[in-house]
DNA sequence: TTACATGCAAAGGATTTGCATCTAC
DNA sequence: GTAGATGCAAATCCTTTGCATGTAA
């Protein structure tokens, strides 16, 4: 575990919300200005392989990630106002089969929930956007 | 409605499965070799705006699309073996709240189901992969 | 006609990689 | 000492855009 990796990991923790590589680079460089972009990309790839972060889509042509604190099968609830992320249990666990499957055997699914967090829900402007993919 | 648009639309129909722009360009050029890549990108963007196709993720760094035949809110079931796509009703319609939301108001969700179609489920090798995002 | 579609090539932008150097263990 | 990490710059590759031309209505 090298110093840049430590800085990157703590930057992800400190962000506490969905982030792009650019977001993360900015956060990292606030503390360690010399860290290269390639290093951040490589660190995020490693964290993704280790299930420490998960890609939840795309924002402005860039990959969007969230820190994955929960173990096992779960999903993410992303606030479209501020990017805050919460974990949610899988609502499909209780849903038996699936309609319209036409002989399909479902082996996996991807689910991301979007909404407004308690803070953003009470604000005036419903905020702009966040993801796309 | 120009000739290239017509060719592209029918190519999407003929594919009948999840496709990348490259897949579509190949299919289009089998019939109309002179069609430019930019035209395909523009046509797909128009079809996406018209809800005729939907982006369901990424495969090999390229956007992955499916043709959207159903109206209204629905999801897609993508065969990881052959890319065949089926439509599925939303299994979350029946699921009331959500656990672990911590004050979140859910306004939208993205769900894509993966599995094996009837044909691929009976084959020997479970096939490789398909999406990523 | 008149606005929109097309094709080509160039541009843009995120992400990856080569390589020499450095660092953790 | 050695494998892996780093940083820089160059390279990749998907996607978009400028522009002159073509085409549908």
Any overview of this molecule?
The structure is a homodimer. Helix content of chain A is about 30%, strand content about 25%. In chain A, the strands form 2 sheets. In chain A, strands 1-3-2 form a 3-stranded antiparallel beta sheet. Chain A has a 3-stranded mixed beta sheet with strand order 5-4-6. Chain A has 2 domains: about 5-65, Winged helix-like DNA-binding domain superfamily/Winged helix DNA-binding domain (Arc Repressor Mutant, subunit A); about 75-130, Dna Ligase, domain 1 (2-Layer Sandwich), CATH 3.30.1490. Chain A has helices at about 5-15, 20-30, 35-50, 120; strands at about 20, 55-60, 60-65, 75-80, 85-90, 105-115. The interface of A and B includes residues 91, 92, 104, 105 and 116 of A. Chain A binds a DNA duplex (25 and 25 nucleotides) through helix 1 and helix 3.
